[in-house]
Specification:
4 strands; elongated; about 120 residues; about 30% helix; single chain; alpha+beta
Length: about 120
């Protein structure tokens, strides 16, 4: 399976279990790896036979900016479902970064990574 990767998609969301997270919001960063067969698109040089990663990026940002959820695990699941709605995408790896998580000790990042595929 071929891979199309989008790294560092940034959006402001209001996800989290604490009131402050819901009220103030914070930046979330999303990395995606889309699994698909790019051979038909490459053979015909045809965008319609692959995934339009610009549209995927816009859809993922809309999910992050959309309805708040408590857990980044839930957010990752919603993003994966959105990506799999594209016909050519057979598998997706989603990594959601929460660099401003409310943690009381020094840290660089918190991430949740999931892989989902068509059944």
């Amino acid at each position: 399976m071929d891979r199309v990767a989008l790294r560092g998609l940034k959006a402001r969301g209001h996800h989290g279990v604490f009131p402050r997270e819901r009220e103030e919001g914070q930046t979330f960063i999303v990395d995606l790896v889309l699994g698909l067969d790019t051979r038909p698109a490459a053979a015909d040089d045809d965008l319609a036979k692959t995934v339009h990663y610009g549209i995927v990026a816009e859809e993922v940002v809309a999910v992050v900016e959309g309805e708040p959820v408590n857990l980044i695990e839930t957010l990752a699941e919603q993003i994966a479902r959105t990506c799999l709605e594209h016909e050519s995408v057979r598998e997706v790896e989603v990594c959601v970064h929460k660099p401003d998580a409310p943690i009381t000790v020094p840290f660089d990042d918190v991430t949740v990574t999931i892989t989902r595929s068509r059944v």
